[in-house]
């Protein structure tokens, strides 16, 4: 039996002046899926993630997450609802340690949490936050470097730390924007099994934007292809790779 639909995007559209960055894009992501989003530079991939996470309001269209209509929610409300993301341009607090970075991400989960993060919270709660931060660092293989400044980490390690931060909000959906960017070959090789492990362990649904085609093809259950803001193909990796429209989009770019 197929898993239920968890994310349902309907006719999502975003215009910037005369440019239609995302043009009437509709797709469904099923619970537990690893769903890839590919397309040439400027195709609208990051804008679509921004629409899904409240950073950019859609010009029209809607996104449903389970029974909840997410359209028009703020990034904070989206995160609190259970959709978490990483960014193409890494957004860590460079001068802070790895452990501090994960702890702050947990405090940011709710406004009350952020308040407590700034003005202090009770000791038991603080211990829970600290323990969970250690668990997440352990999961991404960085617990032995918890006290090091994030700015000193390699790209690959910064991306892993970003994933730990995204998981700190206990999401049900994880959106990864180019997780392999800047990683070396060995790190890229390990990323596929790492993302699957994280999906299984936290019972997640994952969407991933990625330029590295072999990684996408190995990792994803299904792949959607954007070109000039339009969704030109959705399907299993092999059939998408054979699709003449997809081949043309890539050769033309
Ligand atoms: N805030 C904005 N204002 C104006 N134009 C924008 C804005 N954000 C994105 N765009 C434009 O929308 C289009 C899609 O950009 P987007 O970054 O979503 O593409 P992408 O597929 O993620 O590209 P890449 O693979 O290069 O990251 C581009 O033409 C871009 O210049």
Summarize the structure.
The protein is built from 10 helices and 10 strands. By secondary structure, the protein is α/β, with parallel strands linked by helices.
Molecular structure report:
This protein is of the alpha/beta class and 253 residues long. The protein has a 6-stranded mixed β-sheet with strand order 6-7-8-3-9-10, with helices on both faces. Strands 2-1-4-5 form a 4-stranded antiparallel β-sheet, covered by helices on one side. The chain is globular. The chain binds adenosine-5'-triphosphate. Keywords: ATP-binding, Nucleotide-binding, Transport. This is High-affinity branched-chain amino acid ABC transporter ATP-binding protein LivG.
Question: Secondary structure elements and their pairing?
Answer:
Elements: E1 5-16, E2 19-30, E3 34-38, H1 45-52, E4 60-65, E5 68-69, H2 75-81, E6 83-85, H3 98-107, H4 111-119, H5 123-139, H6 155-167, E7 173-177, H7 185-202, E8 205-209, H8 213-219, E9 222-227, E10 230-235, H9 237-242, H10 244-251
Helix pairs in contact: 3-5, 3-6, 5-6
Residues 16, 19, 21, 39, 41-47 line the site of adenosine-5'-triphosphate (ATP).
Q: What count of domains describes the coordinates?
A: 2
- How many E strands? 10
Sum up the overall morphology in one term: globular
The small-molecule ligands in this entry are: adenosine-5'-triphosphate
- Taken in chain order, the helices and strands follow as EEEHEEHEHHHHEHEHEEHH
Helical coverage, percent range: 40-55%
Distance between the termini: 39 Å
CATH fold naming of the largest domain: Rossmann fold
> Beta fraction of the residues?
15-25%
